[in-house]
Amino acid sequence: MKKLILTAASLVLASSAHAGIVVAHDNFDGANAGFNAGWSTDITSSKNKPSVTTVNGNKSLTFGANADRAAYWNLAETQTGGIIVDFSFSYTGTLGNNDFMGLWLGNADGPSFGLKSNCGNGSCTNDLYVRTVGTDGPWLLGSDLVAGQSYHLLGYLSKTGGSDYYNSFAAWMNPTADEMNSLTGADKVATGASKIKSVSQIGIRTVNIDSGVKVSIDNLRVSEVPEPASLSLFGLALAGLGLASRRKRG
């Protein structure tokens, strides 16, 4: 298990990056990163286990076999509020219908988003989905993916209307900086009460990956969205740090 240690300066950067405070991050590169530095898998065959490969010049976690828990990671702290997840995604090979790689939160049947090619059954060319429950879409319009191209995927899982369960999952493909900061303008928002009240584990589920297809993720980041009161206190704390710094310089 890894826990990211942040300085006050990096907290400012993390907060402004997409309206949340980073609680976990892995770019699969470096001494304290990579698949063996906190990830586990239910895939037992050594040749089929996920591996760290170089994709588009960057190290990525790559999958070519199928499992509900192809890779999973225990968060350092259980999350009960809004959660932001974003990562880079790419694939090689030729997708058929319903090639699937979903990043799930809570458990393999929990809310998820990611690849479900050609709307699952070939009824359209959209390849990205988001859902809180069920086994289908909805799909992100215009998400006809191209092999070898890297895409930035962003998801925001939240509880709305006083629900005790996560019941809203917004998703973006290649979000703008403004969309990341404001968490508005989602390409698709899935609704419906899940069975998940809290999230202590995230993971990757792969299904129907065709022979010759490899799917990869990189720069995975999990962030918590502070409650308004906590965010105000966070801002006051940063302001206090700034005032103390100015006093020291004076």
What is the distance, rounded to the nearest whole angstrom, between the alpha carbons of the first and last residues?
42 Å
Strand element count: 13
Count of DSSP H/I helices: 3
Question: Main beta sheet: strand number and arrangement?
Answer: 8 strands, antiparallel
Beta-strand proportion: 35-45%
Q: Helix/strand/pairing class, anyone?
A: alpha+beta
**pLDDT average, as an integer?**
84
Give Rg in angstroms: 18 Å
* Shape estimate: globular
Please give the share of residues in helix: 10-25%
The SSE order reads HEEEEEEEEEEHEEEH
Uncertain parts: 1-17, 229-250
Description:
The longest helix is centred in the last third of the chain and has 22 residues, at 228-249. The protein is 16% helix and 37% strand. The chain contains 3 helices and 13 strands. With 250 residues, the chain is of the alpha+beta class. Strands 1, 2, 3, 5, 9, 10, 11 and 13 form an 8-stranded antiparallel beta sheet that branches. The chain has a 5-stranded antiparallel beta sheet with strand order 4-12-6-7-8, with no helix packed on it.
Features:
13 strands, disordered N terminus, 8-stranded antiparallel sheet, alpha+beta, 250 residues, 16% helix, globular, disordered C terminus, 5-stranded antiparallel sheet, 3 helices
